[in-house]
């Protein structure tokens, strides 16, 4: 992002859009962040992330489709399903870390401004 | 994000949500990225970002409210309005850079996979 030429700007814009197409929206990065602590069942994930089952199901399907989450059927009685991050999902680390840091400082700034 | 304790995970989740509350959605980071090349008028911004005027107007208001963009009325004939990034918006640089990098590599990966 050092130089702002028409070409570099439109490449940057496209790349940011590409990222938002895959992990944009209200939930995907939150889900990935929650799954970083280890694989989880559907209900556990719904509770921890605070997402309704209907939306969670759709979000997980999209994350699976993009190779970021794997759905594992476990041979237990009754059969259970667990969701886990893929190796590829770790490529999002820098995005998650940057968003975490920004969120922390922004909340701090708002709280200080209110005082 | 080094350790995964219940507390650190829920702090991380909250921080990511806070960030998404401010710059989440389909357009805000794209708009910030477009404005990095300098201040722009409303129509110019609408064209460059590919956003309909109605949505652009709402997005710009929210960006202004969160101190990321300033709206400047210029004393020209006819009066013109320009939008510019604030100093504070630069705090999002790491988020933008990380998303750009991820977007580039993801597109490359997809293109290579298709070949």
UniProtKB/TrEMBL annotation, chains A, B:
Keywords tagged on the record: DNA-binding, Transcription, Transcription regulation
Family matches, as InterPro entries: HTH_HxlR, WH-like_DNA-bd_sf, WH_DNA-bd_sf
Source superkingdom: Bacteria
PROSITE patterns xrefs: HTH_HXLR
Matches recorded under SUPFAM superfamilies: Winged helix' DNA-binding domain
The HTH hxlR-type domain, residue ranges: 9-111
Alphabetized PANTHER family for the sequence: TRANSCRIPTIONAL REGULATOR, MARR FAMILY (PTHR33204), TRANSCRIPTIONAL REGULATORY PROTEIN (PTHR33204:SF18)
Name used for this protein in its record: Helix-turn-helix domain-containing protein
Species lineage: Bacteria, Pseudomonadati, Bacteroidota, Sphingobacteriia, Sphingobacteriales
């Amino acid at each position: 992002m050092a130089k702002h030429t028409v070409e570099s700007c439109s490449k940057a814009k496209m790349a940011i859009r590409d990222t938002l197409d895959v992990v944009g929206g209200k939930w995907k990065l939150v889900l990935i962040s929650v799954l970083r602590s280890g694989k989880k069942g559907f209900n556990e994930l719904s509770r921890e992330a605070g997402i309704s089952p209907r939306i969670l199901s759709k979000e997980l399907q999209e994350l699976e489709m993009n190779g970021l989450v794997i759905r594992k059927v476990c041979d237990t009685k009754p059969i259970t399903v667990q969701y886990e991050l893929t190796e590829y999902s770790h490529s999002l680390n820098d995005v998650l870390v940057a968003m975490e840091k920004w969120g922390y400082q922004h909340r701090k700034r708002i709280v200080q401004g209110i005082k």
